[in-house]
Structures are given as structure tokens and as C-alpha cells.
Amino acid sequence: MELVHHGAAYGVTGSCHEVVVAPGLSLLVDCGLRQGRDAPAGQGADDRLGFDASGVRALIVTHVHIDHVGRIPALLASGFTGPIFATPASVLLLPLTLEDASSLRSNPCADLDLRLRRQLVAVPYGQWQPLPAGLGQLRFQHAGHILGSALAELDLPNGERWVFSGDLGAPDTPLLPDPASPQRADLLVIESTYGDRSHQGRAERGERLRQIIERTLRDGGTTLIPAFAIGRTQELLYEFEQILHQFRGSPLWRELPIIVDSPLAARFTRHYRRLAALWDEEARQRLQAGRHPLSFTELVTIDDHRDHLALVNRLAQSGEPAVVIAGSGMCNGGRIMNYLKALLGDARTDLLFVGYQADGTPGRMIADAEPGQRLWLDGAEICLAAQVHQLSGFSAHADQDDLLRFVRQMGSPPKAVRVVHGEPQVQQAFARQLRQLPGVGVVSCGSDG
Ligand SMILES: [Zn+2]
Predict the structure, then answer these.
(1) Which of 78, 206, 293, 305 is deepest in the core (most CB within 10 A)?
(2) How many angstroms is it from 221 CA to the middle of ligand 1?
């Protein structure tokens, strides 16, 4: 029994872990796209498979973020015909994610949709699913990260239980149930994206969102929020519905449009609505009370590209108040770019970052810029006049306390832990914390090599 990492051993992207049961007999947990520093030198994103998958008999998908599924087309192109196990929600969302990422693809898989349909197997949370080729069995539990996200428990042929955390969400992520700690693990493979820090102010995130938006409304103009199409956009809509529910009568909020300018985000939002059975207790209670957390009257969706361009022009000229949510989340492409180019030079504009802006992205460049500074954005020069705000508390990842609690709340401490999916120094910092927990066995890091 051997664990081999084909990504996310040194950084946070390209998750792909191979469980080798015997020579030429293995299964994969995730098959994600490597980006930025995790990609081989000189590559923005690398969707080539990069390893021999001829022994792989099954793929387990923890969730549909591109850094966990982006190399699936390459895996299929390499001749993989085995089952792809995922939760029912992930089975629905996966084709959308891969379709959206098709522009990144260097090895298009012509019959991708067809093959996905043939090979995807939906496994509901909490049910044991036999694996092919005598590889054992699999059970998913809630990971609370995005809709459909799961951790995977594997009972392997040698009698050991290995648990892969996938990405773990914060306990109070809107719409989603909290992550469920497993009972036991001979080996726990755990993510560590924020293994060295704690998120502040998650409980007040909605209240601070309201305060910032109200401040931006008073001076008119557009409030721009760059956000990822899956997860973050729906969390924002959920918070906006709550604010509108409370303040609908107030002059400031009356008839303020909340605009989602992203066909992809709109499609994901429709799926989120359809899958309301998977929402957490709070969200379902709102539904029962006759509210519509993801489809309120002030919500406007822009699909057509001409409508998008017309709206950018209109907002730039009129300065009428509006909230616009558009991707990409780090401003390195997508419809948010036209808004930034048209509106960042206007002092009435407010730009609100709700997510992590990675080093080297345009989002980070804008977040770090001084007022009046000249910026180059997508071939255009802009003098920054807009106000830039940062709102923390919207992270889709567990922080250090959450991760440690996840381990402490296991029925018995894990016999061994492998820390992955974090910057090397973060993995080390989190491993040091884990070693102090009573009963936890050997702790190693993917970045140790
Ligand atoms: Zn993720």
C-alpha cells in the first residue's frame, strides 16, 4: 500500500493522490489542474496528466473545483475507462466545471460529455460503495466546502482505513452543513491551505458586508465584487438576501439591483437552488418561511455578452447605484475585467474583495495599489480613483482552529497523518500543531518529498 502525490504536495493546486494497492493496481483521489507555482516552470496552468495512469481502476472526486478535477480530460484521454465516483451534486456540477475550463485545455477530449456520463457514478453521503478490482470500499461525508463537497473514507484491501479530507470548509459557511469528522483513520490525508492562521469575523461577515455596501451606496456609483462562480457567488447572494430581508423598507436599499454578470455563476446558482435538499438547517428554514435565499426580486442575471457590454456602459455613464458580482475572483480574466477598465478610474466606484488575492494576480496588484496610482490592466492604463475595500470572513476553507478541531473530534486520533494542499511552510506549521494533539501518530508533510 503506497501513497503517491501527483500534485498538491508542495502547494495548494493540482490535487491528485494515487493509492497504489499493488504494482499496476491503484485508485486516484482527485485529478486537479496545476496552476501558478505548482505547474512546471513557465506554465500558467498545466492540464497534462504528467504520470502513467495505466494501473488506475477508479477515480474518486472530492469536489468540483478546477484544482481537483481539471486533469480529468487528460486522464480520460490517456485511456482511463473506470468509474468516477462523486456525490450526486458533484455529478451534476462536474460537466459544467470542465466545460468552463475547456479554454485551458491543451488536449481536448472530443466525447468528454458522453464519457463523463458513462463513467460518473453518484454515491450519496454516508453510504458505503464497493470499489472495482477488489480495491475495497468508499464512503463520502460532508466537507462543508462547496455544494457536493465530500471527504472520502476508504476501506482498503489490507484492512486499513484511509481518509482523504479533500478541501474542508469553515463551520459556518452559508448554505452548507459543517464538515463531519470521521470516526477513525489509519492514515488521514488532510489539506492545510490555512493551516497557519485564523479567519477573523466570520460571524459578523453579513453585517460588515451591509456596512460597506451602505457606505458605497451613499456616494452612488457601482460596487464591484469579483467572485468565483461556484461557491463564493452563492454565499454572497445568501448574505444579500438576508440584508434585503431586514432592510427592504429603507430608502438606501430600495430597488438596489444585485447583478450577477456571469452565465456560469448563474448556471451554478440554478443548480444550487435545485439542490436545496443539501442546504444546511438555517438555509432550509428560510425556504420554509417563504424566502428565496438565491432568487430574490432584486437579483438580476446577465447572460448575453451584448447585455453585459451595454450594462458596463450604462453604469459608467449614469453612476446609478448597483452591486455587480462577476468573475474571475482574482481579476485575471472574465467579465469583471470590462467593469474594472471602465470604472476603476471613477471615484464613485467601490471595489470590494471578498476572497484571497494570490501573489502575482491583477487582483493583488489592485488591492496593493495606492489611490491615484497608474495601473496596467488587460492592455489598458488606468488611474486608480475607485475606493478599494477588503472583506475577510468569506473563506471557503477551514482555518487552523477548524482543522485542529476536525482532527480532535474524530472518534479516535488518526494513527498517521499526511499534511498536503498548503504552502510548504504552512504544512510544517500545521504539522507542528498536529504533533501536539494527544494520541496522533506520525505526522508527515507532502512537501517533505
Ligand atoms: Zn476547493
Answers:
(1) 293
(2) 33
